[in-house]
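PROTEIN DATA CARD
Card holder: WD40-repeat-containing domain protein
Chain length: 427
Origin: Aspergillus cavernicola
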Amino acid sequence: MVEDRVTNIEPVCLASTETEPTRLHRDFSARQPEGFTPADTGKSELNHGGGLRYFKSAEWSPDGTTLLADSSDHHIRTYVLPPDLLDEKQLPHQLLPYSVLPSGEPTYASTFYPFFSLQDPSSALFLSSVRDHPIRLASALVPTSVATYSLVNPTTEAFITPNCMIYPSALGGTHFLTGSDSLICLFDVSRSGNEGPVSWMPTIPSKRKQAVGGGVGMKGIVSAMALSPADGGILAAGTFSRNVGLYDSNGAGQSLGTFNISKTEAVRHIGGCGITQLLWSPCGRYLYIAERKSDGVLIYDIRVTGQLLGWLQGRNALTNQRMKVDLVSTEQGNSHSIWGGDTDGFMRVWQDPSHTAGAQEPSWQWKVHDDPVNSTVMHPVGNIAATTSGQKRLKHHSSDVPEPSPITRIDSSLKVWCFPCVGGSEG
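Structure generated from the sequence above:
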């Protein structure tokens, strides 16, 4: 319980999609490409009243101007923030999508081009992996695919859909990495079409290597990846089977080791049944691991592969739904915090989690939604956060059948918040 540690300073909602869509955004000519106009949302906008469609996740562009949101109706929406976002006279601003990219199947993963700039439309790009389709490189400003990349099973000739992707700046914007079933692939963005990845890196050894004692590797769907901030960084890859593998040379090198997180002291306290997210500390020493059906986040010391340092508890995310967390650090990098939402609509903060071993309770919490907060993403600079909410609900034909949810008000929304300066974070 953290009620006695809740801050009295409430966050301010700067913008929200919940506002009634009476008009489009005001003029954004100071921040948008010439000739660009908002998308006509019309029927494609989320149906808040019906609750049948909901936001699944969001992420910030590297320049902090744009949000990319995936929703359960298989649409990816781009939101460009207004230049007067912090103008108190206009709060909360109305958020409507500037571009809507539809898909026929669910999106498994998405990631921005690492050198995204709203002032340079040619760089305003993102990748997305859609079930049973090639990977798409698309414009965030207009619903247009720029290129596609095929990942095909050589035996069945069926498309392999990556469950996670990263497009790190460390690779110079020319390459990106994908994770799928026991496989990590490296793609060259200049090799589009049917050429496939430039490197296939199975996470389990071949049958030949197994026969000569080559090790067991890491079997399972690669569901999360993260690259450490150090030069020639270490790639951490996690699986739904609760394994973590480490690879050097930004993921292109050899395996540094694997470990399993299922048999630790933390399991008795916070549970967990499959890795959904990995985050590196700013110093590159610690790895944060988020899972499905977990009440917290694991902290591992990577200087000693596989050593559990502690865990964050009180997260209240005991659900199969992906619940994205994020990390905030000061400019000096000597302090950082983990931010995450829960199934009851709260956002919580754990300050300096790597400074203490064992269990840690949240330092602050705020009520930000009336449905599960399934995505918490922090602005690249300052105490600005974006949150998305919503959950899958059964559609009943009879009003006598109640919906299986403890929350009475449906809240399927994207919101942008300004938070108080907590724990020395710099705004």
